[in-house]
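Forwarding the complex inputs:
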Amino acid sequence: MDLKVNGQLMALPELASDAAMPLLWVLRDGLNLTGTKFGCGVAACGACTVHVDGQALRSCVTPLGAVAGKAVTTIEGLAAKDHPHALQLAWLAEQVPQCGYCQSGMLMAAAALLAKNRNPSDADIDAAMTNLCRCGTYPRVRAAIKQAAKGLKR
Amino acid sequence: VKRRTLLLSGLGVAGALIVGWGLMPPRSRLGDARTLPPGDGEVGLNGWIKIAADGSVLLAMNRSEMGQGVHTALAQLVAEELDVPLGTVRLTAAGHDAIYGNVAASMGNLPFGPRDHERRAFKLSAWVTAKLARELGLNLTGGSSTTADAWDALRLAAATARAQLLGAAGLKHKLPVAELTVKHGVIHHASGALSHYGDVAAQAALTPPGSVVLKPRSQWTQIGQPLPRIDLAAKVDGSARYGLDVREPGQVFAAIRHCPMLGGGLGPANVDAVRARPGALRVVALGPIAGSTAAYAVVARTTWHALEAAKVLDVAWQAPPGGRVESAAVLEALEAEARRAHAAGEGFAFLKQGDAKAALAGAATRLEAVYSAPYLAHATMEPMNCTAQVRDGHVTVWAPTQVPGFARDIAARVAGVAPEDVTVHVTYLGGGFGRRLDVDFIGQAVRVALEMGGLPVQLVWSREEDMTHDFYRPAEVAVLQAGLDAAGQPVALAITNAADSMLPRWAERVMPGLATALDVLNRNAFPDDRAAAALFMRGDAPDKTASEGLFDLAYAIPNARIAHQPTRSGVPVGMWRSVGHSHHAFFKEGFIDELAHAAKADPVAFRLALLEGLPRHQAVLQRAAEAAGWGQRPPAGVARGVALHESFGSIVAQVLEVVKDKGQPRVRRVVCVIDCGTVVNPAIVVRQMESGIVFGLTAALWGRIDIVGSEVQQKNFPGHPLLTLAQCPVIETHLMDSDGPATGVGEPATPPVAPALANAWFALTGERRRSLPLIG
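Prediction (whole assembly, two chains):
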């Protein structure tokens, strides 16, 4: 079975080709894409957020069978190495991450928000950013999203 | 009497030895090239610094990066002294030599208050402790001690290396060293650029440093600057490697199912059925390891196959031998014990001054209150995990750990090898908060790896296992009593808290061979009239963490007795961000607010008066009050609350603005001021304040772990809410200018949050809340 991940059609190893296997583990254990994180396994924390056809999805509860034929984007594919996403630049400018474990999911959730809404209000950010962060990076996440949005407007 | 008890302390069990050995000069923490073996093309100059052929600097990193920014802060100290850009400092793993141990963490555990530091007996006790900690070399990242510990050692290592490099350049170019300068790692003379560090490193290793002078503050260009963190590029593109991201050739994965009852045991299980599940390889029974509850581990080809197979496990679990534990009953028992011990004048008095009993009896106004706090989980975003491989008598461990030395020890004990036959790779930590001071999950991984014929195995705890098998912040109840004179001045304070001791329980788990030595040390840590009581205390030695934040009182109250009554609840307890301060600040600052109210005084003015003689505390509180607009009427429906608390050497004041939202408190703004001495990186300090505040708000609003029949009831985030982005208040942080010693920043913002919130709620509603959490 093949899966389109970060623009490439990838052959799934036999041990990661069960249709019931959550996309999170297909990525992490089957394809060695470990940037997407395991936090809770019940779609509560958002550390596992990826894009499926551009939509932010929690990969820990999304079975492989549900993404067949769809395009999956992970943090590794959010931008080309030498052309960082506006959010990644804003994240560095605001010095957002602390332990950093939840930040892949935060960035993917924020990228899906900005793709739909280039000028999000505080309420839009509140509604879209439901990812949990134990280090308390929330004030910086909010500021970085606004900064990236400002850059997109120009 | 004082002299006799002092003598008694000095000649206590370890005392005679300590005095003799204490007269020897302290050992250097510089190390040498053998302490930090150089790789290809590298030259080692001491135990901390190597120079690569391209002139870049390699720094031996002995502390764990769990979000608090220490990798950057320590590299910044070295970059400053070596005159190199921060970006050219690369990190290399420090080994297990005692120079990498944490002296400052031991100093932070001395039972002193803010008014003790200048007393001679305390200075002597601190000196002995520092020397002993240097000998022991216990390596841990915790106690908000990293910068304080590295401050002298790393700057000296870098300055020594620089002196050797300059000396070598002087020889090479036949120029006086005094005429040489360094810019961006390149050695210059008036005549122009001469060499980079790599060109002269080999010669430098043979060149004595001469007299080494640290850069004066006036010449700092990096210390004090908000330089970008060196770990963040990897944390925004997914490449940062945490424990769960370890991928070794042939690696298999293991899920775990502990007995749901804390401290319970294993019974017969459907092992064959589990092994028959797709991808499953093996089921391993795990007895208690380093304080863990017994468990089964299920090894499989992927994490998912392991987690799925583990769900099928059907076990006749055994109840804990000491009987089942109910947290509600524990809290009731703690209250009864606190009341009984308080009335009887029992418990270990960490602070005893004047005559609290008599002063209370004679007071014009008396107040009494009972405060309590629940068990709390750490809930790091990265669940507990460890990867281990046992092959040809050698153990390799990849672990997100705060204690690499104890990790090595448990791996060696479990595998039955010498510590020298264990290699520990410390990964990034997806949060620590004290949970990763424990090594249960490391011992478990090694135990499973022993069964796997040399394959590397990654043990992964599900969120449910992580939340239900933590070492919890202890539940606690305290009785607080105070007396005011007719003018409203506090004349007496008596506090007795009943709680499990944390430090002895932790020491038994992670350093069983040294737990007794630690007990002896803690009994000998009191240089005054507490010495005899400490020496002869039954059970555990006095645990400073069980009273910190109460006995180390900044407020000048002439008659005080502040005591801890140790209990054994049967629940596994551990260190949780800010440790004893986490709940004691709530008790103390809530009660002080009650006294201010009883005295009909403004809460800020009331505290300022009691802080006479401590100008740093006063300045922090005043700054917070000004920044928050204290004294100006808040908008309708908004109330302010204040708290001031010192922990880990730093003083923090916070003012919270609270509104009532659907009958519940909601925080809309936090003003935070910290005096943490010299600031190495203000951007990191500001973010650590935000971090500690969010952590404290989660705990104050919803944080609780309930235990029924020894089973933890909160199992995952839906039932254990964390503050969300939408709920996060505006946070404003101000740093005090200081040239004092650098003190803690990772934890001190957490303690004042809960009391400032409860005090604001009182101002808003007139309802005094004395137990946590405030909601639910």
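The radius of gyration of chain A is 15 Å.
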